[in-house]
Amino acid sequence: MTEHVRRFTPTQMLFHLGLIITFMILSVTGLAWMFIETAWGRLLASPFGGYQGALQVHKITGLVLLAGFAAHILYTLTRVTWKGFPKSLFGPDTLVFQWRDVKDFVRHLGWIVGLVKAPEFDRWSWWQKFDYWAVWWGLIIVGVTGLMLYNPVLSSQFMPGWMLNIALWVHRIEALLAMAHIFTIHFFIEHWRPRAFPFSATMFEGSNSLETMREEHPAWIARLEAEGRLDDALVQPAPLPLRILFFSTGYALIGLGVFLLVFAIINVGLLTLRL
Amino acid sequence: MSSRSTTGRRQRGLLPALLLAVLPVGVAPETWAADVLHPYEAASTGYFREQDTLPGSYHLYQTEQAGRFWGLGPGGSEVRRASFSSDAHVDVLGYTGRTCVSCHETERHSLHSSRGNVSCVQCHRGEPIAGIHHYYSPMNPIRRHAYVCAKCHQGASASFATYVIHEPPPLADSTRDEFALFHYAVWFMVILAVGIFAIFLPYVALWGMRELGGWARAKKSAGGPHDD
User: Fold this and answer.
1) Does residue A218 have a cis peptide bond before it, meaning omega lies within 30 degrees of 0?
2) Is residue A275 situated within a structural domain?
3) Has residue B43 been placed in a domain?
């Protein structure tokens, strides 16, 4: 077994795991509510005791996710190097978009069409940063509109009731965008593209093999070596039973996502909701 | 109602309990009518203002609503003459024995009917059905919140009652005039969502093909892909 490089801390893995669990519950209950006119929607709602139960679980899970988001924001603040702020935000280890990411994007595109050599990514590639910040932007949109819709009688005391017409559609479209993005693009990039196929456990294990990291993040490994920090970053890969657990749980969730996406597309014509 | 499980009933009790825990206490204090800042943000006090009882005063509310947020709210749709009548269907030939949606086909679907199975007359009331602007109609904006919405939505305010039940299709051209902010906000979200996929789908498809090509070449030259 090859050696692994540590990439995520247990806290970061916990945030991702919490996000997966709440996101999946919200997806199932939200689609159940959106598709309640169809047999498929009622099937999704049935484990929650029908549509009212699904809606209540959706609301409560939404609050849990927002609480997790708040915790994550606080966590992020503790991770910022305040010495030398704001310049410290622009190092190679941060997730802040930098000029380098634009160049990497263009170069990556050039590599895809076969014009140039592949870019040498540092710790984070541009799509990893995009996926990270997409959660922020998505959560702000669904979070604000979700809170508006949580108790319409209360929220209409602070804004005209017709704002809820807008909030509901914005909430729906952002949620559909998030689900479709996760269940196609995110799964493809992290698990299905030939180099990662069939499953990348990095986010669950916290590490990936040195060899893979040399290929995918060569500038990061080179930097760790040059600074003499690589040896400290090396860890043992997870034992086999744990890797089997990651794989099977991961694929159960991937399967659930694909199931939701496929059946949502199949049933969308039966909805009376019209854009 | 009777067919629901006890779990359902238990869950319904859970939400108010949770709300009490989450929401600040005293969100809707008892207020003197004179201290109410704005009739639309205030919960209904049960008091009416002078113009509330005058025939035709609905337009004060319509103008007020349509003028809010730079005129981006609802209220731009045309107002029908029959909506001022005490019997909106008095001139309709062959009215007896027909269903509402046989004429009002486009009003068939709303969240209230498709999700809540609320029938037309539960809000628009029985015969003779008054136009929604008739000043004795329960649907008149001056009392709709109290006479109609609050039947199910306890504590509904006049602001709450401005929620558009029979929503126009958000992307339609006509909605730009009827409910501008709704139209623009939904268009913005649709462009955002479609834009993301228009960029990412071809991108990852080409990327996958590129890796597949590279993988095949590596297999040919080195005898196999990297062992991971």
Assistant:
1) no
2) no
3) no
Q: Which residue has the tokens 């002078």?
A: B50
CB A188 within 8 A of CB B204: yes
Q: What angle do CA B81, B84, B85 make, to 5 degrees?
A: 95
Contact A212 B228 (CB under 8 A): yes
- Contacts of residue A13, defined as CB under 8 A and 6 or more positions apart, other chains included, come to A203, A204, A206
A25-78, pLDDT tens digit by residue? 999 999 999 999 999 999 999 999 998 999 999 999 999 999 999 999 999 999
Residues of B in contact with A37 (CB under 8 A): 114-115
Residue whose structure tokens are 């501008």? B180
Q: Which two tokens stand for residue B178?
A: 């009827």
A152 touches chain B (CB under 8 A): yes
Please report the residues numbered 6 through 65 in chain A whose beta carbons come closer than 8 angstroms to any beta carbon of chain B: 33, 36-37, 49-53, 56, 59-60, 63
What is the 3-state composition of chain A as percent helix, strand, coil, each rounded to the nearest 5?
A: 70, 5, 25
Q: B92 and B156, same structural domain?
A: yes
Quote the CA–CA distance of B159 and A157 in Å, as a whole number: 7
Q: Give me the interface pTM, i.e. the ipTM.
A: 0.92
**Plot region of B99 (φ>0 → left; ψ -120 to 50 → alpha; else → beta):** beta
* Residue B57 shares a structural domain with residue B79: yes
Q: Total structural domains in chain B?
A: 2
One-letter amino acid identity for B139?
M
pTM exceeds cut of 0.80: yes
Token pair 């004179």 is found at B34
- Partner B contacted by A180 (CB < 8 A): yes
CB of A177 closer than 8 Å to CB of A138: yes
